[in-house]
What does this fold into?
Amino acid sequence: MLAMDLCALAARFALDAEPALVEPLGHGNVNATYRVQTVSGRSYVLQRLNTAVFQRPELVMANLEALIEHADPPLDWQLPRPVPAAVVATGSSSTSPYLVEHGGDPWRVLTFVEQATSIDVVGSASQAAEIGRALGRFHALLADVPADQLVDTLEGFHITPRYYSAYQQQLASGSVRLGNPRAQWCASFIAERADLVPVLEQAKAAGRLQLRPIHGDPKVNNVMLCSATGCAVAMVDLDTVKPGLLHYDIGDLLRSGCNPAGEETTDLQAVRFDLDLARAMLSGYLAEAASLLNAADREHLFDAIRLIPFELGLRFFSDHLAGDVYFKAERPDHNLSRALVQFRLTEQIEAQEEAIRALLTELFLALQPTAATALHPEAMDLAS
Ligand code: GN1
Ligand code: MG
It folds into this structure.
């Protein structure tokens, strides 16, 4: 769409002034996102929601409203807020005051997190700690939102067995051809890991893991860092905030944050799982949210760290076979290449299983009260 048309579209929302400029924002794989600046200098986020993914965009907006109503962010934390349409069109079929229809698609405007940036790749342990802390703070914030206030905006999201059976159906239908060796390698990689697929869903079905409000898509570039201090000030992209397992989020944060090559690399040899970054990220997370994790949650963390990159690889691969209908692709093998990165990362995680498990044990032990305080709880009172 032309910048002029986008400005005209933005003007249909209750902004503080006339829109003056518009430019693409971020690298999302699903929605189309722009930054709009008004003549007053204030910025907003203008987004076209992808209805091939979010079939009920009004539910996405309702969840955002529920989040804003129930979560009580501290002063140094921001939640992007929806901006209502300036005039609700008469006869509009939209059931949300925050959506405007244009070209058959739903559009919305959100407040912009000023003086903050996001990063696609984590560059240092201190950045990793801050990113981990951000998710911990966000989970603590979400813990105040009653689960029954949130609806499921994307059914089956992170339910690995559903992606797996959809993929198996694709193969069985004969509609896809694993023409090249890279695709064949992916297919074997997946087939060898059929046992991994149900690991979290089985624990959930057995009552060992519970649904809680989660972000759903906490990849590192959805964390906003203050441009001046580097401290996390917000998490954005809240469309998949809904009941889920904290594990999906923790797994996704580590998969996106501990691979220094980033998820768009084409250099597979550069893909690795960096334990130092993982240590910093998990420490940051636990400093804010350790109390949310019970013993069963902790036992399943390694599974989550291994499963979520595998799941994303499966999602990318399946979308490649389907002709790129879900994730935006810039070239014909883009989603295949993304799948290979995630599978390579899964392999790296598997190769370091012992070290990752030892790291988790070490971090949880460090959270325990010392032997002295455990034996003499009053020592803790004195210390506090
Ligand atoms: C998608 O659109 P974006 O980039 O925020 C996807 C995530 C994936 C991610 C991988 C709703 O997120 O699940 O982890 O791409 N979002 C949805 O980059 O499917
Ligand atoms: Mg997203």
Observations:
- The chain has two domains: 3-112, 125-375.
- The radius of gyration is 22 Å.
